[in-house]
Amino acid sequence: MLRNFYKLMIALAPLFSQDGNASDDPYLAARLRMVETQLIPPSRNIRDERVLNAMRKVPRHEFVPEKYRSEAYEDHPLPIGHGQTISQPYIVAFMTEKIAPKPTDRILEIGTGSGYQAAILAELAAEVYSIEIIEPLAEFARSNLQRLGYKNVHIRTGDGYLGWPEAAPFDAIIVTCAPNEIPPPLIAQLREGGRMIIPVGNAFQQLILLEKREGSLHQQAVLPVRFVPMTGKAQEPNPPETPPPPPSPTP
Questions:
Q1: What b-and-e string marks burial along 127-164, b requiring 16 or more CB atoms within 10 Å of the CB?
Q2: Residue 186, φ and ψ in degrees, nearest 5
Q3: Sign of the CA dihedral 134, 139, 141, 142?
């Protein structure tokens, strides 16, 4: 029934102008078509209806440079400047579905980019904390999210390798840049029972899904991918871990 509704919306959306009473979004039909043709069976395997609804709602074209807006809903990544890209829609949906966000969750994102993944997460979770190492991109993302009314996303310019310790622990962590190894500080900031999804590797990368259960990490490779490398301390020979917190005062 719901899928038939969206099929009807795809058919009708081009009939409405920006001044029409059904939608002020000229990209609505393209966005709904993206979900139907790129994400759900039989073409792809995204099944979580909350994730699909977020992908239907968030205007991806608002997170890409003006000259790429006509390509915003196509099945590939797009440049966003500074040698970075906005991920392919399927990868955004896939990674989001794998961490299974709940409405009460607090989620850490490493690699804000233009803010699109953060907006998707903001539709699904209570709070999103996102770190971007490139300051102009952090400002671009902040501007995009504020313009679109997202108030539950917190953005920091900094090195994502070290995470956001003062806001930890997190129910889920999503990493959109690839280190050679999983950063220990991020593992430490993942709540018991929490999930992390992260691309790992150099020339050949695998998307790794981790779950922390009873103090142990359970991990599996779920998809071969290609992400930009994690920069900053991740590229040092022996990246530092988060320093331990000071001991509690003796009562």
A1: bbbbbbbbeebbebbbebbeeeebebbbbbeebbbbbb
A2: -70, -40
A3: positive
| Cβ(132)–Cβ(141) below 8 Å | yes
Give the pairing of strands 127-132 and 106-110. Answer: parallel
Catalytic site includes residue 248: no
Q: H helices within the chain, ranges in order? A: 2-12, 28-34, 49-57, 89-99, 116-122, 135-147, 184-188
Q: What's the one-letter identity of residue 224?
A: P
Per-residue pLDDT of the chain (251 residues; tens, 9 = 90+): 555 555 545 444 443 433 344 457 899 999 999 999 999 999 999 999 999 999 999 999 999 999 999 999 999 999 999 999 999 999 999 999 999 999 999 999 999 999 999 999 999 999 999 999 999 999 999 999 999 999 999 999 999 999 999 999 999 999 999 999 999 999 999 999 999 999 999 878 999 999 999 878 999 999 999 999 999 999 887 655 544 444 443 33
> Where are the domains positioned within the chain?
2-235
Active site residue: 17, 23, 70, 87, which one? 87
Residues 6+ apart with CB under 8 A from 51: 93, 96, 97, 120, 124
| Neighbour tally for 233: CB within 10 Å | 18
- At position 45, the amino acid (one-letter code) is N
Closest CA to 48 of 119, 123, 100: 100
Q: Tell me the C-alpha distance between 130 and 184, whole Å.
A: 18
2-235: CATH architecture: 3-Layer(aba) Sandwich (3.40)
